[in-house]
Amino acid sequence: MAKILADKRIETKHGRSRPVAKRHMPWGTWALTLNAIFVYTFLYVPIIVLVLFSFNAAKVGSQWQGFTLQWYNELFADARLGDALWTSLKIAGSSTLIATTIGTLAALALEKRGWWGRKTFDTALYLPVIIPDVVMAVSLLGFFTLAFRQFQALIGLNLAMGLWTVIISHVAFNISFVTVVVGTSLANFDRRLEEAAADLGATPWQTFWRIKFPLIGPGVLGGALLSFTLSLDDFVVTFFTRGPGVNTLTTEVYGRIKKSISPEINAISSLMLLASTTLVVTSLWMQRRRQG
Amino acid sequence: MNTPTWAVELDHVTKEFRGSVAVRDISLKIADGEFFSLLGPSGCGKTTLLRMIAGFENPSSGDIYIEGVLMGETPANRRDVNTVFQSYALFPHMSVAENVAFGLHMKNINKADIATRVKQALDMVQLGAFGDRRPKQLSGGQQQRVALARALINEPEVLLLDEPLAALDLKLRKEMQLELKSIQQRLGITFIFVTHDQEEALTMSDRIAVMELGKVLQVGQPTEIYERPKTRFVADFIGECNFIDGTVLAVENGAVTLETDGGVRVVGTGMFPVAAGDHAVLAVRPEKVRLVEGQQPQGTNVFAAIVERVAYIGSDTRIIVRLPDGSPFDVWEANTVSTLDPNQYYTAGDPVYVTWATQNSLILER
């Protein structure tokens, strides 16, 4: 190092010479830069191609034959797709509502200090976040099959897979995400504000609704939006736990793709991409927004 | 009013947290309208004591009475006390006016009355124009005032203040000290003020309880605490103090003579019953010690010493001298004469005599 400093000197404006370190990029930095370029290429090129081809006039093949909105027009006229979208929204809406309620309550319980199972429960809640979708799906399917058999054997009740089993399954994985997000916003909540409210005469109930809930509200809303997005985007769990005739956007796309990749599929996918991105960005924004 | 009512009475209050004792068997009586300070280093239990009065913690044993009523496990929201928190704890999602109105809203007072009283409370703390702001938009000093208004608007019997001025800069702190004191006198509310700043406690309080390790060491008026400390800790914690350890040689009319290990004799006023042969310590405050140059003065408590360090701080000059046995000794001299003559100030190496009057030094338990 000292050698480099001594060897290379430049003249300054004032005519005095100063040592300069030789600038060169170590090979590690080159490798990392190259790697980063590859990562982003792999991530984004397929998506960009998908979006581009949803505007391609060619019905088949990978030739660019001019810009068109035809596929989007066909999309909006497609009744089957409309039904699938409606099913997706029903599942996402109801599972979000249930998961947000349960998840928020769970986060509030986990935040209370001094009960024995706190750490264990806290860790256990992360399981659905890290578990592979297919494992979650298979275990839910197994659970339903077992439960149905028990119901029939014990009380003679015949249950079957349907929309409701998908909703329950989505609730199952969404609870974790909601709890984690709400837990973060609870961690940022200043507990002294609760004491201040009690000191000023507020009952625990009033303290919760006037102080705590408004302050963790952005976290709850953020959790709900995330949950809605995850539900809307889910394919694997839905595919395994749906009953006959239940078709969401993702399962519909999968069904069509088995025949061929049509420009219409590209158009649906582009719209789903847009919707998910918007929801996730909104969710992050809600979580980050500070009160006051 | 034959029987005096106490704003707050603590009867053998103890608080333990998982085996460690934060407050040990404290009994105190705080009078109506009194400005009472709990003073001690951090971790002495003063904040825990305050939190028990507020109702955020319950005593492990002992009783707390507020205005003669036994509190037991009455929760904070049903006690007629309000707290000004160290961190202010203002509600960030509400305006200043909404923060101040919160306590009255909880009491279901009608809207028109609330509006009038909020305005009065904000005017009282000179924030009349700031009602629509968010707490975040205010300076630390202003937030402090909002916290004060938010507590006082409820007209509590007792106001609890947990180091409310700790976060303010020196000048603002001095201003707020005077303002708090004048508000307290005007409203006649009992203030219980927690602080670790002895000067703050001396300035504002009617009485002070000095605490250490969960215990109250001494309760008294500021002058009593400063001029007649009962223990070495109190003398040391409140202000500055020189200590000389020794063995009691003689006791005569309240004047106790100590002999140090080096054979030097000092005399002070006895503050606890002693007999010859007891170990004790002489305490003398630096501003009560005089330095003499030249001729050796007559009388008791005279030592030859060498000036070691001189710190000129404007109103006083603080001089550290070294006694013959090598121990340092603090002396403060008031700068009563305005001069630039260097001969009027001590410099390191000057030979001097250190002396103080018997009645200005106390003999305390070692």
TrEMBL record, chain B:
Domain ABC transporter, chain residue ranges per copy: 8-238
One Pfam family recorded for the sequence: ABC_tran
Enzyme class: translocase
Translocase found in the keyword field: yes
Gene Ontology annotations for the cellular component aspect, listed alphabetically: ATP-binding cassette (ABC) transporter complex
EC assignment: 7.6.2.11
Catalytically driven reaction(s): ATP + H2O + polyamine-[polyamine-binding protein]Side 1 = ADP + phosphate + polyamineSide 2 + [polyamine-binding protein]Side 1
Keyword set, alphabetical order: ATP-binding, Cell membrane, Membrane, Nucleotide-binding, Translocase, Transport
Gene3D superfamilies, A to Z: 2.40.50.100, P-loop containing nucleotide triphosphate hydrolases (3.40.50.300)
Recorded GO MF terms: ABC-type putrescine transporter activity; ATP binding; ATP hydrolysis activity
Quaternary assembly: The complex is composed of two ATP-binding proteins (PotA), two transmembrane proteins (PotB and PotC) and a solute-binding protein (PotD).
Similarity-based family: Belongs to the ABC transporter superfamily. Spermidine/putrescine importer (TC 3.A.1.11.1) family.
Function: Part of the ABC transporter complex PotABCD involved in spermidine/putrescine import. Responsible for energy coupling to the transport system.
Full protein name: Spermidine/putrescine import ATP-binding protein PotA
UniProt organism field: Herpetosiphon aurantiacus (strain ATCC 23779 / DSM 785 / 114-95)
Name of the gene encoding the protein in the UniProt record: potA
